[in-house]
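On clarity, I found the account of how folds are encoded harder to follow than it need be. For illustration, here is how one protein appears when written out as sequence plus structure tokens:

:::
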Amino acid sequence: MIRILLIEDEPIIAKDLAGAVEDLGYSVTGICRNHHEALNSLATTLPDLVLCDIHLEGDDWDGIRLAQEIRSLYNLPLIFLTALTDAATISRAAAVEPDAYLTKPFEERGLYAAIELAISKFALRQDNSPESPATEPLPFIAGNFFVKEKKRLVKVSAADIFWIKADGVYSLLATANRQYLLSAHLGAIEEKVKDLPFVRVHRSWLINFQHIEAIEDDMLTIGSERIPLGKSYREAFYGRLQQL
């Protein structure tokens, strides 16, 4: 599950934002009102993404300066939240190279789009960084994944995969006997397996139909794992189930 730090000085907006983030299937590591609280929170619990308001009332740092400090200390995707859209503010914000913008008042679909965009842009930037070769992070050839294990690539047949779960900016792939951490976002993996018997059942879960053992209420059982079936995924799931 993607963990998000919220930096927002207005309590009502912060509460609404936290509720929307959790409703979308993400988790909140903290809600901070100023740069002191934000830097302390980051030192204690490192999130997968930072969502920062540009204007922080009563703080001698605005969100842009805080974002610059965060970028200098941590390698994290960053979203700016703002009601300020003047050219000078946007120019200063752009210099930080945020991964997405979210404007107030926000809508849940806009929040989801900003989070997914930020994660995807960050993952792409990591894949193309000088420290890592600019190659496809998860090669998929003839129904087989080639996942990185230490310094070698291990072949994993798609048919042997039980489920794939979002794990921050990465994904966790499970077979009957092994689990692999993948340097790819769940959305990118879903695109690769769209023609195979895989289906998204939750914002954080992609499952292989062939390994479902039981369906009870809003839970699926695959091996020893109990997997939630999200409300917005039910119709597509049962439609796909009938086709199979």
Notes: The chain is about 35% helix and 30% strand. Helices lie at 11-23, 35-44, 63-73, 87-95, 108-127, 186-192, 234-243. The radius of gyration is 20 Å.
